[in-house]
């Protein structure tokens, strides 16, 4: 048995799964319980933390583009060091990982609605029990949920948006254009008296705008463009019952919604809110301009550190493409030493420190 477990986190989580971001430190341990035969064949136990982003085309067997973002490893046990492993006995090897202050793309597995394109960013912990020849006797993997720090702001005044034809006499207002996953988008609809009796319903839709920047060469040669797709995230249609001038509406954002990000040279995500009114007669509709929406990860007023840098501004040690020598290498996560903490402070020794009485007198003078 080989298993990776993470210690419980009491901070950021999505559906009870811990989320890690720039600068995060997380702890865990590798559990090992193997037979005498496997012990004799094994040479070392190591843990690897690695991440990869890739794009795929529907007709392509291999990725259109693949880039390993980072790869860090630590040897947890080595037979040559003399430490013994008992057969059929569970042994625990702790580890601590420190993420760099880098904005990577979020953990993502997206396929376009047309199934023509796909994008994956995977952060993975892997443990390997290796033989002397380097082959893996046992291996196990655990996905890590990573999210970047995307700031959000709230507007000081409501944003007023009129319908495409102002003569229609309809407008909507929003208190913000930035939201967090799981939060509702509040919309206030205002109708002129001429429309109050003729509007049947209002539809609110949130779309995810997906842009593939790394596309098949033949597609780029033919169209010289990026591949863009639109994916419906959430929608709601509300019947307008009362003939009043204002109506309060809400659209929930799913908690697992991927945040907006545009700093990747491979793939980007944005959001757009669409609002339509349906009239009772002839099913005519009144449309509003598309409203750009940002889905962030930090609450209103929370700012990320100025030390955070975007991953695409660095060169990768794994890239096969020609890179500028003057560009810094992308920092990778680090395995930290596990520190054993005592339950109490060490006993006071006046040989090492001045007496309490002496220290008090000095402070008062």
UniProtKB/TrEMBL annotation:
Q: Which SMART domains match?
A: Arrestin_C (SM01017)
- List GO BP terms, alphabetically: protein transport
Q: Any coiled-coil ranges, and where? A: none
Matches recorded under Pfam families: Arrestin_C
Where does the record place the Arrestin C-terminal-like domain?
Answer: 164-300
| One GO CC term, this protein | cytoplasm
* Record-given protein name: Arrestin C-terminal-like domain-containing protein
What is the scientific name of the source organism?
Answer: Rhizopus oryzae
């Amino acid at each position: 048995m080989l298993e990776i477990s993470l210690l419980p986190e009491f901070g950021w989580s999505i559906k009870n799964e811990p989320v890690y971001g720039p600068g995060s430190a997380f702890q865990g341990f590798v559990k090992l319980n193997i037979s005498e035969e496997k012990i004799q064949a094994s040479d070392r136990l190591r843990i690897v933390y690695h991440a990869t982003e890739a794009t795929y085309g529907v007709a392509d067997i291999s990725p259109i583009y693949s880039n390993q973002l980072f790869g860090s490893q630590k040897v947890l046990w080595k037979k040559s060091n003399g430490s013994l492993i008992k057969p059929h006995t569970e042994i625990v090897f702790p580890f601590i990982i420190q993420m760099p202050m880098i904005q990577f793309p979020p953990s993502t597995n997206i396929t376009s609605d047309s199934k023509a394109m796909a994008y994956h960013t995977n952060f993975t912990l892997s443990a390997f029990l290796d033989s002397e020849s380097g082959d893996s006797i046992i291996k196990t993997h655990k996905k890590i949920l990573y999210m970047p720090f995307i700031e959000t702001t709230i507007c000081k005044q409501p944003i007023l948006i009129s319908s495409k034809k102002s003569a229609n006499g309809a407008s909507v207002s929003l208190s913000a254009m930035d939201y967090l996953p799981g939060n509702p988008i509040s919309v206030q609809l205002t109708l002129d008296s001429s429309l109050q009796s003729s509007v049947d319903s209002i539809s609110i839709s949130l779309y995810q705008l997906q842009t593939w920047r790394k596309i098949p060469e033949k597609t780029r040669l033919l169209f010289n463009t990026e591949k863009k797709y639109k994916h419906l995230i959430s929608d709601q249609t509300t019947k307008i019952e009362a003939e009043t001038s204002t109506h309060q509406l809400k659209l929930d954002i799913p908690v697992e919604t991927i945040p907006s990000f545009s700093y990747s040279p491979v793939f980007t995500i944005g959001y757009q809110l669409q609002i339509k009114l349906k009239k009772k007669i002839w099913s005519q509709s009144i449309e509003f301009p598309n409203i750009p929406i940002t889905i962030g990860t930090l609450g209103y007023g929370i700012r990320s550190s100025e030390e955070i840098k975007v991953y695409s501004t660095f060169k990768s040690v794994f890239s096969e493409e020609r890179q500028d020598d003057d560009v810094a290498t992308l920092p990778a996560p680090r395995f930290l030493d596990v520190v054993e903490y005592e339950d109490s402070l060490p006993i006071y020794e006046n040989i090492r420190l001045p007496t309490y009485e002496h220290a008090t007198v000095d402070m008062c003078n």
